[in-house]
Amino acid sequence: MNPSAEQTPVTPRSVDYAQWYLDVIKRAELAEHSPVRGCMVIRPHGYAIWEKMQRELDDRFKATGHVNAYFPMFIPLSFLAREEQHAAGFAKECAVVTHYRLKSQNGEVVVDPDSKLEEPLVVRPTSETIIWAQYKNWIQSYRDLPLLINQWANVVRWEMRTRLFLRTTEFLWQEGHTAHATAEEAIEEARRMLDVYADFAENVMAVPVIKGCKTPGERFAGAVETYCIEGMMQDGKALQMGTSHYLGQNFAKSADVTFLNRQGQREYVYATSWGVSTRLIGALIMTHSDDNGLVLPPKLAPIHVVIVPIFKTDTEKSRTLEEAGRVAAELRAQGLTVKLDDRDGIMPGAKFYEWEAKGVPLRIEIGPKDLDQGSLCLVRRFLIEQPGESAADQRKRRKQFLPRAEALASVRPLLETMQRELLERARALRAARSRIINSLAEFEEFFRGDTPGFAWVHWAGSPEQEEEFGKRFETSIRCIPFPDQIPPAAQGPGTCLLTGQPSSQRVLMARAY
Amino acid sequence: MNPSAEQTPVTPRSVDYAQWYLDVIKRAELAEHSPVRGCMVIRPHGYAIWEKMQRELDDRFKATGHVNAYFPMFIPLSFLAREEQHAAGFAKECAVVTHYRLKSQNGEVVVDPDSKLEEPLVVRPTSETIIWAQYKNWIQSYRDLPLLINQWANVVRWEMRTRLFLRTTEFLWQEGHTAHATAEEAIEEARRMLDVYADFAENVMAVPVIKGCKTPGERFAGAVETYCIEGMMQDGKALQMGTSHYLGQNFAKSADVTFLNRQGQREYVYATSWGVSTRLIGALIMTHSDDNGLVLPPKLAPIHVVIVPIFKTDTEKSRTLEEAGRVAAELRAQGLTVKLDDRDGIMPGAKFYEWEAKGVPLRIEIGPKDLDQGSLCLVRRFLIEQPGESAADQRKRRKQFLPRAEALASVRPLLETMQRELLERARALRAARSRIINSLAEFEEFFRGDTPGFAWVHWAGSPEQEEEFGKRFETSIRCIPFPDQIPPAAQGPGTCLLTGQPSSQRVLMARAY
């Protein structure tokens, strides 16, 4: 517990959204900057959320036939250089190891110049090149395929402007790297893993996403096709939450990985790669949290229920603590993670404030009156706001006094309700800030206005026009959505809002993180 | 599946123990060298064992009140230099990042000299210095203590002579870093975590260990006291399997971390750190495996049971496969991990061979005869050898034909038996190769002989004599054991076998990995 955090107020979203984001992270003790340029420290509460995410994702990867492995984090420079597009894409953000020893010199520790490496090593920004060098040993014939491997790892992409969770020099992620005998199979795999990500985003994170393809200019360096999921944050900006790439034979060619196909011919192997990272914690914060701090979907909450005993006298203290212990035990027996906050010297109000800021979905208050009446006071972290409702009314609605047995039986259903309502609320926000746009004037008005968001537009411009247009409005084509991802009213062909050329379907444009 | 692995025979231990170790790893597809100097690739089967270890350890860390977090892998050179002993200890094996960008030059990718860092970054060899820099922000008073944090991470210690799992430039580990208000509490924590490691080693890995302190010369760089657990490998050599350090106030001083104690005085914080690594997989291999390949304790086996259907005709095939599917489902319902090997085109014998090499504890063979008789054939991976028993007799004893229901009911008890017997066998081996030694002549004979092992000796030499003695016999003091770790017959005071000086208790000497 960082005592200084208690005193930090959260800047309201309406005042300064960027500062609000940082305040929520600080108050919830999720992460902080480190003295190492661009690198963050993920604090225990933030890491506990990441562990929950990892478990959910890993189970899904294994259920779809993948296994985990671990590859070196150092990549010889010549390996990275093998795939030209790839090298060009990552060259400007690589941490490079050039020496392997320090020495003492005039009482100072310095790099030993005699320890210079013959070939510099790059700290992996992503692992395609080192993994495909290994796959060469493992793949001889179609019988060795598909090869379905995932890795949980840290990666480094040197960043000049960093933002906690969203963009840091070092971050944690998983990267799947699969090898296939046919292009069709590989594309199917890349699409399957995008579906896994979308399922995780919606059903675990409670963040609705749009699935689609990136435009050529936004593709992963070395990919034939990049699929992505895009979420909308509360400020209407898009956040790319996961990508899945069909790599064709590009990496197999650069690492010379061939296999004997069923027809007895040598052929280059087809590849995919796919990843999500600690960036997802940023998405979680920006989708659900409020001016009181972090809001977590129950499925990712490290603590489901916090119990705060309330007392004045010593007799009241021992009575309420005893009951709190019993309630905690009964909830734990239901498989829930329960925190009993029995700290001395901290007022109940301060405890409420702290656990709300940390996003615990449900609080149970137990005071002498509750004991006398055989009831419990349940307070949910959030509810769907009603139009025109005052903060005081909302606080009242969040609180329920229930007979003890009924209260204990209602905890799980209430968590499920909150999980569902978070997704509903996020869907409603997205709907409210999405617009079907047919003209440049309308587009300009939408993005110059106070509540920009997702714009569904017809586009048929060239890559150059796409870049120029993006710069002009600070927007980008987030994806070319799969047809079933387009809202019914936005479906069908039309004409490009810039060029007037025919377009077969709308794309998704937005500002983005 | 690496087809080439199937053809690799395992060199018998009696012929070449070092080669046997490499062969087991290759045949079981646990790991292999990568093209990056000193770095290994942990293959899926090896990584699955590590995941099992992680889960078991992590549960134990959490049960003792620890939480996980993540700190940057880059450490500014000046941070590492702050603790003098520590810097000196790690200086010779540090990977150093000096640049952050590549560029194209005459069609080649090279390090961009303009991207030189003002201060070089060291890839963490261990994280005390970077973590204590952060603890400075988190600790103000005794109320913030203890701080009990663990990190799962990769670390780098540049190695010239590497050995898969045992010694590699990059390896995976966990590192606990705790902060305490008193020396007593910190020492208690360091001892507690050593007990956690010992419990894990014996009750999960089935490797008996001796707990004790390192001599000053073998201490962790920067520690006041280093506790360790030492196991014996099948060749009689010791392997340090885990260490737990009491760091006193050394790191708090170098990072200037003080707290207000209960008496209202500022004081430096007391620290511990403790770690185990992927090296434990090496210990597992060298303790239990045999000339047929890997042997795994059931608690760490990624697959508990492999089912191999045996058939000649198509009718037999469909009958046995159907029964194999039912048996697999029934065992999975027991919570076991089951592999049904229904691959076409591979003879049952080859499958037996493959899964034995991979250490699957139990095989169930299902043929038409078993179906007709309503029985199943259970084959255990290993048993405790009887003196003078032939290989053929042993094979026979490993195999049991049991009525179906009885067979299914006996799987779990059989796995438990094997778990217990592996520990018993390892204990017996250790006992057979441990010797109470009272004279230099005896010591010399023991270590010049064919079956050296653990020597219990009285020692009262100086650090210089310790080093010289170690070089002479290629042995080292593995630890000064805690008194209860010394075999009854070896307890009590005596005189140093080198100097004749009085010694209060025996130490453990051995050759070591």
Structural class of chain A: alpha+beta
Largest inter-chain interface? A-B, 73 and 73 residues
- CATH superfamily of the largest domain in chain A, please? Bira Bifunctional Protein, Domain 2
| Multimeric status of the protein | homodimer
The count of helical stretches of chain A stands at 16
- What's the gyration radius of chain A in Å? 26 Å
Mean pLDDT across every amino acid position of chain A: 96
**What separation lies between the terminal Cα atoms of chain A?**
30 Å
Main β-sheet description of chain A: 11 strands, mixed
Strand content of chain A: 25-35%
Strand order of the largest sheet of chain A: 3-9-10-16-13-12-11-24-27-23-22
Unreliable stretches of chain A, pLDDT < 50, 5 or more residues? 1-5
- What is the number of independent domains of chain A? 3
Q: What is the molecular shape of chain A?
A: globular
CATH class of the largest domain in chain A: Alpha Beta
Q: What percent of the residues of chain A sit in helical stretches (DSSP H or I)?
A: 25-40%
Compute the number of strand runs of chain A.
27
CATH architecture of the largest domain in chain A: 2-Layer Sandwich
- CATH fold topology of the largest domain in chain A: BirA Bifunctional Protein, domain 2
Question: What does it look like?
Answer:
Two copies of one chain form a homodimer. With 513 residues, chain A is α+β, with helices and mostly antiparallel strands. The first copy, chain A, has 16 helices and 27 strands. In chain A, helix 10 (314-332) links the parallel strand 17 (305-309) and strand 18. In chain A, the strands form seven sheets. Chain A has an eleven-stranded mixed sheet, sandwiched between helices. A five-stranded mixed sheet of chain A has the order 18-17-19-20-21, sandwiched between helices. Chain A is globular, with a radius of gyration of 26 Å. Chain A has three domains: 16-96 and 124-288, Bira Bifunctional Protein, Domain 2 (BirA Bifunctional Protein, domain 2), CATH 3.30.930.10; 305-410, 3-Layer(aba) Sandwich (Rossmann fold); 434-510, C-terminal domain of ProRS (Translation Initiation Factor IF3, 2-Layer Sandwich). The two termini of chain A are 30 Å apart. Strand 5 (96-99) of chain A pairs antiparallel with strand 5 of chain B.
